[in-house]
Design brief:
The chain is mostly helical and about 625 residues long. Helices cover about 70% and strands about 0% of the residues. One of its GO terms (molecular function) is phosphatidylinositol-4,5-bisphosphate binding. One of its GO terms (biological process) is protein transport. Pfam families: Exo70_C (PF03081), Exo70_N (PF20669). Belongs to the EXO70 family.
């Protein structure tokens, strides 16, 4: 019994030495030495004598085993019919491959023996042929699995209507369905179908096919052909993704091609890019990740590598387009579409972080974040270009009638439209530190808007100096100032500028009004002023003075009304405020003058000869000031 126990103990020791050191003879020697030092019974002689370097019987057994495996495997390797068409055949072939891999593993530690090495060489050749056939079966299964997908659903698309910056209308957002065109010639490639719900995962292949692929992948990895298996898998799935993006309407464009595109064509391409990106990052890529994990279950490195190879090309295509937009023209009218690209990529960053976080694909995640930040820089650059546009707008030709200047209309409608994306813009501008302590409690976007308004006001003040008539320059400032305030009020722009800013600029418009009134009507009011000392000149002198005054009033009033009837005040409320203010100072003064005129005996009898305007006539003439038809220059929009 004791001898049997010792023999079993020695057998265990031999097994441990053989198993742990089968790939490294030096390691086996080290293990034997450790056993020998531990217990004399485990001497190298006792153990090594039991594991001979060359055993003819063992070689014969290996040769016999390989011949049996060769008959089993060659039957399938040489077959013209798909092995996986019959579940019994596929199971038998996999069993034979398993036995072959096990045999190689078991005998590889004796590869130094020439007889064993020759057998192992045959086994490795047999394994290679088996792997090639498994690779073919793997590819065939993936292609056959795709045939169950319907790729003929029609694809329709619509475009978003764009509203010019000088329009008061809100932008209309049209949500398009996502889809693909009829596939026709290449229906063997499974393609993502049109979807509107991004919170789904598609089963790219039937469950049974996935299980079969996993079984093949498991053998190919065990046989040392994991990279080859990954390559076949990736090439098939990569084709699926590329075709899917193509059917979503997305073109493969270089950065140079994007930059050369007409703006309208680029707008349409951005719309398609947004939808393709959402479908790719929310549906296609997660589905591919899920498929990789199922096919390569238990082999995380192979799964990660395969997923990266499948998605890299499509992800780079999407990112390159966004990058081309980011480094392209910074013309102000491009802001709104670049905001769309920025917001889309921002919202997809969590998907990039969850999908592309392993060692093989982390660079894609980092590139997505870099391009997203670059888009933010582009948006800031566009606002700098807007500032330059305002600065460069020349103060040459005056707007007829002191009307609304095109730069005012453009800038205010532009900023109102931009501020509809206030949250996004605040995110963009808050990337920079505050400028100074004065604005420490204000968002960087508020500072930016305030600065643009200052530039616009300075530009308008310079333009007002073109007018030779001071009264007309104040009408110009009133019109543009009122428009600025009205556009800022009750909007996100006004919220950013603040109530104090609104009050300050409303007061500015009132001040322009006062200056206009003084420069236009003070001289007329001076004519109507009654001198208390006129009586000392005698009745004849007073009559003469009164006649001269009424004649001068008639001339100047007529001239003011003639000139200012061609001036423009577009805001109806402002026009009414100006008219009422003139009436309040002019009508009482004129009424007093006319009454005094009638009281002079020498004039009263012939008053109608000198008094050209009655009170109602004055009101009627004032009511015709600043009238403008809807089609006139500078219409209020």
């Amino acid at each position: 019994m004791a001898e049997n126990g010792e023999e079993k103990l020695l057998a265990v020791a031999r097994h441990i030495a053989k198993t742990l050191g089968h790939n490294n003879n030096n390691m086996a020697d080290d293990i034997l030495q450790i056993f020998s030092n531990f217990d004399g019974r485990f001497s190298r002689e006792n153990l090594s004598d039991k594991v001979p370097d060359s055993d003819p019987r063992a070689c014969a057994a290996l040769d016999h085993s390989l011949k049996s495996l060769d008959r089993r495997i060659s039957h399938y390797v040489s077959s013209d019919h798909p092995i996986w068409a019959d579940s019994a055949d596929s199971a038998s072939f996999l069993d034979a491959v398993d036995d072959l891999v096990a045999a190689l593993s078991e005998w590889s530690h004796l590869a130094s023996d020439k007889s064993v090495a020759a057998c192992l060489s045959r086994a490795e050749d047999m394994l290679q042929h088996s792997m090639f056939r498994l690779e073919d079966e793997f590819r065939s299964l993936m292609e056959r699995g795709g045939e169950s997908f319907d790729v003929t659903r029609p694809y329709t698309e619509s475009t978003q209507n764009n509203v010019p910056f000088d329009s008061e209308e809100d932008d209309e957002e049209v949500e398009d369905e996502v889809g693909g065109r009829n596939g026709g010639e290449e229906e063997q490639i499974p393609v993502a179908l049109p979807v509107t719900d991004y919170d789904i995962v598609i089963d790219a292949l039937p469950s049974g096919t996935i299980n079969d692929l996993h079984e093949i992948a498991k053998r190919m990895v065990a046989g040392g052909f994991g990279k080859e298996c990954s390559h076949v898998y990736s090439s098939c799935r990569r084709e699926f993704l590329e075709e899917s993006l193509s059917r979503l309407g997305l073109l493969k464009l270089s950065i140079e091609e994007v930059h050369k595109m007409p703006w309208q064509a680029l707008e349409d391409e951005i719309e398609r890019w947004i939808k393709a990106s959402n479908v790719a990052l929310r549906i296609l890529f997660p589905s591919e990740r899920r498929l990789c994990d199922r096919v390569f279950f238990g082999f995380s490195s192979a799964a990660d590598r395969s997923f990266m190879e499948v998605c890299r090309g499509s992800a780079i295509q999407l990112l390159n387009f966004a990058d081309a937009v980011a480094i392209g023209s910074r013309s102000p009218e491009r802001l709104f579409r670049i905001l769309d690209v920025f917001e889309t990529l921002r919202d997809l960053i969590p998907e990039f972080e969850s999908l592309f976080s392993d060692q093989y694909s982390v660079l894609l995640r980092n590139e997505a974040i870099t391009i997203w930040k670059r888009l933010g820089e582009a948006i800031r650059g566009i606002f700098m270009e807007l500032e330059n546009l305002i600065r460069r707008d020349p103060a040459k030709a005056a707007v007829p009638g002191g009307g609304l200047h095109p730069i005012t209309r453009y800038v205010m409608n532009y900023l109102r439209a931009a501020c509809r994306s206030r949250i996004t813009l605040e995110q963009v501008f808050d990337e920079y530190p505050k400028l100074d302590d004065r604005v420490a409690s204000t968002s960087s976007l508020s500072v930016q808007m305030d600065w643009i308004m200052e530039l616009l006001e300075s530009n308008l003040e310079a333009k007002s100096k073109i007018y030779k008539d001071p009264a007309l320059s104040y009408v110009f400032l009133m019109n543009n100032g009122r428009y600025i305030v009205q556009k800022a009020k009750d909007s996100e722009l006004g919220t950013l500028l603040g109530d104090d800013w609104i009050r300050k600029h409303t007061a500015k418009v009132r001040q322009y009004h006062v200056h206009y009134q003084r420069s236009s009507w003070n001289k007329v009011l001076g004519i109507l002023k009654l001198d208390s000392g006129n009586g000392s000149a005698g009745p004849n002198g007073a009559a003469k003075t009164m006649k001269e005054k009424i004649k001068l009033f008639n001339v100047q009033f007529e001239e003011i009304c003639r000139v200012q009837s061609s001036w423009f005040v577009f805001d109806e409320q402002l026009r009414e405020e100006i008219r009422i203010a003139i009436e309040k100072i002019l009508l009482p003064a004129y009424g007093n003058f006319v009454a005094r005129f009638h009281s002079v005996p020498e004039l009263g009898k012939h008053a109608d000869k000198y008094i050209k305007y009655g009170m109602e006539d004055i009101e009627a003439r004032l009511n015709n000031l600043f009238k403008v038809s809807s089609g006139s220059n500078g219409s209020r929009k």
